[in-house]
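Suppose you are handed only two things: the residues of a chain and a line of SMILES describing zinc ion. What would the bound structure be? This form records exactly that question and the answer produced for it, so the two can be stored side by side and reused later without any lookup.

QUESTION INPUTS
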Amino acid sequence: MIHGDSDIGEPKVASAARYVERLNPDIDVERRETRLDADNAHELIGAYDLVVDCADNFRTRYVVNDVARLEGVPVAHGAIYKFEGQATTLLPDGPCYRCLFPEPPEPGTVPDCATTGVLGVLPGTVGCIQATEAVKLLLDAGEPLGGRMLFYDAMDVSFETVSYARNPDCPVCGDDGIETIAGIDYGGGCRVDAD
Ligand SMILES: [Zn+2]
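ANSWER OUTPUT
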């Protein structure tokens, strides 16, 4: 929704910042033109009240989950694939993403958006749900989507919510969970390893 044809060739952080400034000039946008990875995630995530995870690759998604958990930062998660989307909110005291999906899929087993494609409006639908979760969390209002995964199927216009609980065997937040991400191999996890 926030990147247009005229933005092609520009970093997404630039077109995203421009969109937000146009939407509301009172918002103070801090641009971080860098790739989030295990080396800078603590510094980047720990400095904020909330993460909205719009990552298009598994490596970033798992780094965000793990570091946000260690930093006690909630995450509004969203993901899309072809005609389907999903959203959940990872609260610091609730189940994490690895409680559902302990490890990323092996590199090469899951095609990425550049290969499979995604319905153009789908990121807007899922992104607006994430934005709603973000506003609710910051206002401490309503019931967040914690411990629940919302599945959206655009083809038959169905929304389904599935509850999930903390997994005691979760490699991150389980009984023998981690205290640091040092030593975790995040690998590629993405079919096309784009810069
Ligand atoms: Zn967990």
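WHAT STANDS OUT: The chain has one domain: 49-195. Residues 95-96, 98-99, 167, 170, 172-173 surround zinc ion (CB under 6 Å).
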